[in-house]
Fold this protein.
Amino acid sequence: MVQRELARRTKGKNRHSGVHLLSGRIKCGDCGGWYGSKVWHSPEKCKRTVWQCNQKYKNEVRCTTPYLDEASVKERFTVAVNQLLAGRDAAIAAYEQGMVLTLDTTELETQQQELLSEMEILNGMIQQMIRQNAMVAQDQNEYNQRFDALSQKFKEAEAKKDAVAQQISDIRDRRGTMEDFL
């Protein structure tokens, strides 16, 4: 769970801030930036905390979304959490049903095993070729061409296996995130 959270925090240009409970939770619908809390008129009596897009004044083209009052943000989050909790049983049932269909890795794991088997066969063929070349005099140009072709096939299979392993890892991360949420 900790590794998943660290991986989530390092993806993209997003940073984690523990300053406020809602930091990194409100995303701007205009520019895609994150909302952050800002204190207006801090030394004065009419001090107030608002939430606004962190990208509002950073670019030449300014973000046009309005600020949000902290009380309304808290109220909306409370309503959203209560809605989630009210439909929790239905959400869990839907999740379990959907997980079987969308987060199943058995097909990818089978594909990964097939690629590993292919890599073992190719590695055996390469080793056999090397032994044969050491024992029997051969045309080295022809040997190098066959060796390069087998090496290329091995590298392609390895790249495919790595891509499948990354897909499996991503699906497992998504499944873990969903399980943590529920």
Observations:
- The two ends are 14 Å apart (CA to CA).
- Residues 2-86 form one domain.
